């Protein structure tokens, strides 16, 4: 179709996902659901918007998300609401609100859906983007961290993501994280002259967020500052050592990235990112970590947790080229004349009710064009209904994938096609 500029265009950074692209999205959704459910996760669906306070408390003031990127609005009841920029805080809220906390010690949930952040759109960075995320609440053992990383590496292998790398770090707990923060802040205080204006504010409010700065000068200075691993307490060090031992046991390759503190404040201990170097500046296509203090921060009982989110747009950019189109399936009724068209309508209705993909040409093109269309759209069978066929009480069934055709009495057509499709599908499988 000719492109026409609509009077009102879509919002920048909130792209449409067109029919030709949806197949790939579904492919990763189906793959992810299967893997997540095999690892014991159940789906949860939380609303697209929440009270603003949930994200301010959960993600933390001074983070880029809370300070600059939230889509916050007042509704008609004068309540401040925010389109969800991420899924962890909403899951923890739902977990507490619905007493999932009392329904067994380990709660594993996953979600798939859009998130909203007012960022500057560029390749791999959008204002509406999609995440596949998961949260496991109730277990502190590093074995759970290893299982989460195993799940992700398994999923990325299944989807054939080429060249992924796992970056790993530990940023400590409520005992040793403040020590690190202090050391880091002190070191940055000494380098104050080289920091950008934003980082000077960060230094006052939330010094670790200097690590999120994109300005080259600030990055270089932050790279010289103390790292969290140097400040870990005995327990955090043991936790991190155990995790690394288990990753070796499970044969999951990783590298330690001491600067990985992540852009949200709720993390404790393990933090990680899956990176595809081919993606350029926005190369992290998944990230996550432990958040052992978030549930208490939200008013719940002490409950450790760990989770991750995969950025679907970036994951899609990391997948191998699409495989050849779908398998041949379904029935296209090719009709000639009014009587045949009406018979086609009834047969197509019946075939659809039997659960088959079925179509007929509403634009009444020539037989040749109808056959071409059936071929183009990869219908497995053409059901040809012409004057000759009708007179004889027969239809012609043509196998579009392999050639060959047969005459079938009209009363047997539906049964024959339903059987034929079953057999074709079994053969494809
Ligand atoms: P995050 O690192 O902010 O973590 O986001 C996870 C992933 O979402 C990123 O690695 C990236 O692939 C994708 N992403 C983030 N922002 C954008 C954007 N503007 N455009 C496109 N993709 C984007 C979280 O959201 C945490 N809730 C993850 C988590 C779950 N941690 C524990 N549990």
Structural description of this entry:
- This protein is elongated.
- 36% of the residues are buried.
- The strands form three sheets. An eight-stranded mixed sheet has the order 1-5-6-11-10-9-7-8. A five-stranded mixed sheet has the order 13-12-14-15-16, with helices on both faces. The chain has a three-stranded antiparallel sheet with strand order 2-4-3.
- It contains 15 helices and 16 strands.
- The chain is an alpha+beta fold.
- Helix 12 links the parallel strand 12 (331-335) and strand 13.
- Helix content is 39%, strand content 20%.
- It has helices at 19-38, 52-59, 64-69, 88-97, 142-158, 177-189, 197-205, 216-224, 234-249, 294-297, 312-317, 337-353, 367-376, 387-392, 413-428; strands at 42-43, 49-51, 72-74, 80-83, 107-116, 128-137, 165-170, 255-256, 268-275, 284-290, 305-311, 331-335, 358-360, 381-385, 394-399, 405-409.
- The chain has two domains: 19-176 and 232-318, Bira Bifunctional Protein, Domain 2 (BirA Bifunctional Protein, domain 2); 331-428, Rossmann fold (3-Layer(aba) Sandwich).
- The chain binds histidyl-adenosine monophosphate (HAM).
- Histidyl-adenosine monophosphate binds at residues 86-88, 117, 119, 124-126, 129, 131, 133, 135, 263-264, 284-289, 307-309, 311, 313-314.
